[in-house]
Specification:
The complex is a heterodimer of chains A (282) and B (245). Chain A has helices at residues 9-20, 22-48, 56-92, 95-99, 115-130, 133-145, 152-176, 180-197, 202-213, 218-232, 238-241, 245-281. Chain A is mainly α. The relative contact order of chain A is 0.10. Chain B has helices spanning 2-34, 41-80, 83-100, 102-117, 125-156, 160-174, 180-193, 198-212, 218-222, 225-229, 232-244. The radius of gyration of chain B is 21 Å and the shape is globular. The longest helix of chain B is centred in the N-terminal third of the chain and has 40 residues, at 41-80. Chain B starts with a helix and ends with a helix. Chain B has 245 residues and is mostly helical. Helices cover 84% and strands 0% of the residues of chain B. Chain B is built from eleven helices and no strands. The chains are: A mainly alpha (282), B mainly alpha (245). The interface between A and B is large, with 104 and 108 residues.
């Protein structure tokens, strides 16, 4: 922006203030972020499918809503969700809180001293997953295909338990410093073994549940929790250890859903076998 | 009149419901377990309100424009019969939705900030911005690739588990070569990408496609795209890390 230097000093300052303001900054970034998908949808609709866009006015108004909504969300995220996640990590690992007043430099820290931290992260993820609308929709569809063998509520609980276990394991990992990929790869092996035994129809669904659970609100707060944790636990670095919680939240629900499917499949079969025995016997 | 008010308030209620569990759990821990004063409580409350308002507008806007259009197009392309256009649309849809995904934007920025703070990126004002943009483009290309692969899978009827297990093996092989600081963000990127915009549009494409091909169970074959879309970013981001180092 060479030409700004020739301009009036106050104008330059105003320009700076404007570009540095959080809202304007986010708005510009958001317009750029939304541009590709808008271009793709409109381009394919008009050029490839050769159709007019129905309710053009409404669609355009919708885009304005999307832009404003994204800006508010991103600003709110920086003001609330990120600080809150990091704050919770800091408070729950505060030596005063964990060890009481008897804490001194000689106190040995064990991973199990941080039980409130584990309970908090499990509760947080369980609650958000149970209330996740995308998961509710998926659970309903699953009930349809299984012919009632899979109950929507039970499936949601299975997913939520999986995600909660996952995030707990993830926080224990940050506290203990076990390398992330050891645990994730071990998890992959478990998933592969389970796949061999799981009922065929449930496999794609079980694989999808992992991705579905991690919503737009959960991801930032869980990530901030991990980064905050890696920042306050001695010997951990936010860059090396801060990430990874989300990957556990994706992995573990696959295991619990396949486990649940296997259990209900087995129960239905046993029931069928028993009634079959009764018929042949009588 | 009453109906309009309900119509306006309903999405608000929806996004309140999204954030309520988080508020409840944090409030419980603050009031009963930690019992410490919250610093910047005003800022946090204002921020949380912005999140609710933002999500409300965002979802309402998506439902007004992008979702019906995108879903109709997904069905139209699924039935059009031209594999070339279908695959091109699949890639574009995966790429475009991922670039717009707000959670990914936030996480990528956080990753860039951390990497810059740890001095892992080298000097320069624009290095961090380039790193963040590179990260997001990598994830978006990965999701586009995943959707193309997933659509091919539905067309050919390949079982999903072979693709996923193949992907797992690739992750295992690639991990030892990836720089340590990229592994965490790479593993997380899969879960981060599949959120508000991506899931409904991708699911529409999958279900539309599977229901337009004979002898396919729409539910069994329709699912699986999200799983692929949460696996390929892991591989691609590790590849990005290897390229950078």
């Amino acid at each position: 922006m060479e030409f700004y230097y020739h301009d009036d000093k106050s104008e330059q300052l105003m320009w700076q203030a404007l570009t540095q303001s959080l809202f304007v900054n986010k708005l510009l970034a958001t317009v750029i972020n939304v541009l590709p998908i808008v271009t793709i949808i409109i381009g394919f609709q008009v050029v490839v499918l050769r159709r007019r866009i129905p309710n053009l006015k409404r669609v355009l108004l919708g885009f304005v809503y999307v832009l404003l909504g994204l800006v508010c969300f991103l600003v709110g995220l920086e003001k609330a969700l990120f600080p809150l996640g990091e704050l919770m990590a800091k408070q729950l690992t505060d030596p005063q809180f964990v060890f009481g007043n008897g804490f001194n430099a000689a106190t040995v820290r064990h991973w199990y001293d941080y039980s409130w931290l584990y309970i908090f992260s499990a509760a947080l993820v369980f609650a958000t997953t149970i209330a996740e609308p995308a998961l509710m929709a998926v659970a309903m569809k699953a009930a349809d295909i299984s012919g009632g063998a899979i109950q929507p509520t039970a499936l949601r609980i299975a997913v939520a338990i999986g995600a909660a276990l996952g995030v707990t394991l993830g926080t224990i990992r940050i506290v203990t410093g076990i390398p992330l990929h050891y645990l994730i790869i071990a998890g992959y092996i478990v998933v592969v073994i389970q796949t061999l035994f799981a009922p065929r129809t449930i496999i794609p669904l079980a694989y999808d549940t992992g991705g579905v659970t991690t919503s737009t609100v959960t991801v930032p707060i869980v990530t901030a929790l991990g980064i905050g944790l890696a920042g306050v636990i001695p010997g951990r670095s936010p860059l090396l250890d801060g990430f990874g919680l989300i990957s556990f939240c994706v992995l573990m629900p696959m295991m619990t859903v396949m486990g649940y499917a296997q259990l209900s499949h087995w129960r239905v079969r046993r029931k069928a076998k028993r009634t079959g025995d009764l018929h042949s016997g009588g | 009149m009453k109906a309009t008010i309900i119509k306006l308030l309903y999405p608000f209620y929806q996004s309140l419901r999204d954030i309520l569990p988080i508020v409840a759990v944090i409030a419980f821990f603050q009031l009963f377990i930690l019992r410490q004063p919250l610093p910047d409580i005003v800022e946090i409350v204002v921020g949380a309100l912005l999140v609710v308002i933002g999500l409300t507008l965002f979802l309402r806007g998506l439902e007004m424009g992008l979702f019906p259009l995108g879903e109709n197009m997904a069905y139209a392309f699924a039935r059009k019969g031209s594999v070339f256009w279908l695959l091109l649309f699949a890639f574009a849809l995966g790429f475009g939705t991922t670039v717009a995904e707000p959670a990914l934007t936030a996480i990528a920025e956080k990753a860039g900030e951390l990497a810059a703070k740890a001095g892992a990126l080298g000097d320069g004002e624009f290095v961090q911005r380039d790193y963040v943009l590179g990260l997001r483009i990598t994830v978006a290309v990965a999701v586009g690739f995943a959707i193309v692969l997933g659509v091919l899978r539905i067309l050919k009827g390949w079982p999903i588990q072979w693709l996923i297990i193949g992907g797992y093996v690739a992750v295992m092989i690639l991990t030892p070569f990836a720089p340590a600081q990229i592994i965490g963000i790479a593993y997380d990127s899969g879960g981060v990408t599949t959120s508000t915009i991506t899931v409904p549009l991708i699911t529409a494409l999958g279900v539309g496609l599977a229901s337009s091909i004979r002898n396919r169970n729409p539910i069994v074959d329709g699912f699986g795209l999200i799983a692929l879309a949460s696996l390929t970013p892991v591989l691609f981001v590790m590849g990005y890390g290897i390229l950078l180092s």
